[in-house]
């Protein structure tokens, strides 16, 4: 299934370029018949990959363009090449490229054409994974959240026309955009994936055939279309199409024996059309908030890589370089039920050979590099130096605005009952629900049976103009009633519930993950009606970025108290803070939020992502 922060002015480094040679296959000594006509062709025959008439082994790695700033794409790709890789596999997240229906974005971090051009420049082949579902610890598995507002609700990942129609419109834009980059057209793309581990979710063959037809219609008959599923019969039966319609690839956990899985793979491909390929070989693992950062032994991982390569098999490392879940795009998992909610970190370091900051001095990087060098016939690029990092000192943050001072400028939707975030046209960020109730001398009990994902509760007397008073937090994963104290008001008590979207589920049966208050709200077992919903989307990656250095600290009671030494007032109210620093040299840095609460960080108006120090545990 697999499935920190830097300045906007990164340092570029010059590295030597060596055009990759063909992989070495013991026992294969002659080129394929018709080599003189094979230029510009990447194909499968004799259970091998062939590139321009020569046998070829894919030694690739996942590196996702949307998790790396464009200024660093070439740097990270060169580091992947110096690891010994000859191919890059990347997802294409639909929600990044079509944030609103019919509005498409291919600029900045979404400039996939530039990314593919750099891969071509560096001699790296590309395995493209356009979904439409990608998983990848990415919000809603890459689906745009506006799909959740469609009525009647579409069945995601199915042949339901209400789902396939927007998929078709998306691919009608995406696939012609990438078609010039196919290998036969002089570009780097040699394979295009259909869906992603579909066997772990469904068995709708009509859906898979529809995606194949769409891809062939735009990309032609020569491109290799492939599926990826776990290495079991059940998953392959459900997730791929037998025969020669697609090439069925597999993935499996690091400790599994690849031999039987590669034999099983052959059963699902046409005779002679099953080169052994693991498309997701896990070099590390994902981490959720509250967990210790995942770590795997570098020498062990390298030994398991060799166990694959020693079988003349091809391999794709997941991940070669993880990067960062910028903005609001980190996803989430669930456990036994949808309340067992496990949101992902902003960091997507993944304990990959190339670290989140691009460092390559780890045992894992060097060990994997040594193994790969044994199985290729050309010398690997020299290992590059780590990029220099600099501390820019303490940034003094000043409180600029209290949250509730801003609500009069927000867009408002009124309704009898609370509405989900998607239904009011807001896909990310925070939504403020406002209503009122009669306070009792003994206090009141507030229940919100279904809240996605984290709700902070405030009360006040509206006629006095007093500040909102924080009373507690209700969380999806530990939902408990909240006791509201008696509040002596002349009229109804003002109730404000600030709900944070912490990232949509990206894997499993609970993927249809709407955000906000998704149930009735109860005061002492009575349903509370008449609501105003104040929209607060904040910026995401597709928004325009300006030129201020800002940290917007959302919504933590602890924050103001901890930062009282900086001149702020102690209060439970969320607030916005701003600070400035000067980067006199173009070197990377980190932002430390030790002692802060929970919030969001923006640098030059670029949404770096969420921070939550109390829920982050270094290894």
TrEMBL record:
GO MF annotation list: beta-galactosidase activity
Residues covered by the Beta-galactosidase galactose-binding domain: 574-614
Pfam families, A to Z: BetaGal_ABD_1 (PF21317), BetaGal_gal-bd (PF21467), Glyco_hydro_35 (PF01301)
Active site: 197, 280
Signal peptide region: 1-31
Catalyzed chemical reaction(s): Hydrolysis of terminal non-reducing beta-D-galactose residues in beta-D-galactosides
Top enzyme class: hydrolase
GO biological process, one term: carbohydrate metabolic process
Keyword vocabulary terms for this entry: Glycoprotein, Glycosidase, Hydrolase, Signal
Residues of the Glycoside hydrolase 35 catalytic domain: 49-374
InterPro entries for the chain: B-gal_1-like, BetaGal1-like_ABD1, BetaGal_gal-bd, Galactose-bd-like_sf, GH, Gly_Hdrlase_35_cat, Glyco_hydro_35_CS, Glycoside_Hdrlase_35
Keyword Metal-binding: no
Positions of the Beta-galactosidase 1-like first all-beta domain: 418-535
SUPFAM superfamilies: (Trans)glycosidases (SSF51445), Galactose-binding domain-like (SSF49785)
EC number(s) on file: 3.2.1.23
Family: Belongs to the glycosyl hydrolase 35 family.
PANTHER family, A to Z: BETA-GALACTOSIDASE RELATED
Protein name: Beta-galactosidase
